[in-house]
Each structure stands twice: as C-alpha cells, then as structure tokens.
Amino acid sequence: MRRIDTALAGVCVVEPDVHGDPRGHFYESFHQAKYAELGLGELRFVQTNVSRSAHGVLRGLHYQWPNPQGKLVSVLEGEVWDVAVDIRRGSPTFGRWVAAVLSADNHRHFWIPEGFAHGFCVLSEFATFSYQCTTLYDRAADAALRWNDAAIAVDWPLSAPLLSDKDARAPFLDQVSPQRLPEYRP
User: By C-alpha distance, which of 119, 131, 84, 122 is closest to 103?
Assistant: First the structure.
C-alpha cells in the first residue's frame, strides 16, 4: 500500500496492493493497521455509501458543517475526476483544490479529511462510487458550494455537466457565512 500526498496537507491518494491473475484481482480496500502505517491511523468509519452516476454527472461540491465528515472515496466501476477543496476558515490553503482520477482500473482511494468540500464528475459511461464516512450523514449540517465558483476555479474536465437542482443553485464560497464553514485547526 502506498500513500501519495497532494498539495493540500492531509488530502492524499492511497494505492492498495493489488493481487491479480487471469481469474481477476483482489485488494484490501481498507486495512486499519496498514493505513496507520501510512499516517492515517485515526480513521474510523461509521457509514458507507454507494452511488451510481451516468457520464457527465457532476456531484458536489458537498460538505457538512457543523458535524463534518471525513471521506475515503473510491470507484468500483468506471472512472471519475474527484476533487477536494479546502474550505477551512483561516487555513493557509483556503479555497485551493486538488484532484485525482479514480477508476475501477487504478483502484486508487482518495482521503478527504474533515473541513474539505468534495465533488466528482463521471468520465466513463457510468461510475459506481463508494464513500466511507467518519460521521453519519446529518441533514441539518448538509451544505454545498457552487461547482463553477470562479474564486475556487476548479478546472473540471466537463464544461456542461449534469447537475442536481441542489448543486446548480448552491452558493458561491463568498456567499457562505463564515459560521457555516469549518475552522482551521493546525
């Protein structure tokens, strides 16, 4: 298992050891002791979600506050372009983003810590996406940012994605009250 750090401290890609032969393949999608060796020892998941989306669907940018969620995400079928955005008030990287291609072929996992917004767009015909979450979904804390906010300037690989009404109407980052954003704690 290998950890690949990104330009945002705490956000990383995890590449599992994949064992395969002509019959197929096997890998551990999560192993607490091995993740601890990678510096991710405090992970405890309480909810796992799976979504399936068609080509061109963009989901995000989502977060919870208060009651934030950390997410370990991966793709079981297809390919997505996955994004994490630092939205922690006072963070030296506030408003910056990183992305990773996740696919059923590369088996990569993307760790998005609490305090980051998350979104993805589907590059393949369909994608089945898995989210392992550190806290339960909290409807009262559910929040989103506009996917095409110029202040964040995510370089999405789609110009006209398929969006939910919620995502199409989400506020821009500068329209969100500071109390509705996580606080940076070094």
Answer: 122
Tell me if residue 170 falls in helix, strand or coil.
coil
Nearest to 4 by CA among 146, 163, 111: 111
Give the pLDDT band (50/70/90) at residue 98. Answer: very high
Q: Do the strands 24-26 and 116-122 form a parallel or antiparallel pair, or are they unpaired?
A: unpaired
pLDDT single digits (tens) 117-136 = 999 999 999 999 999 999 99
User: What's the pLDDT score for residue 178?
Assistant: 95
Domain count, the chain: 1
Predicted TM-score (pTM) of the model is 0.96
Q: Sheet holding 79-86: strands in order across?
A: 97-103, 79-86, 116-122, 58-64, 142-144
Residue among 35, 107, 109, 131 flagged as catalytic: 131
Percent of the chain with pLDDT over 90: 97
Catalytic-role residue among 25, 27, 62, 137: 62
62 catalytic residue (yes or no): yes
* CATH code of the domain containing 76: 2.60.120.10
Q: How far is CA 37 from the centre of its chain?
A: 22
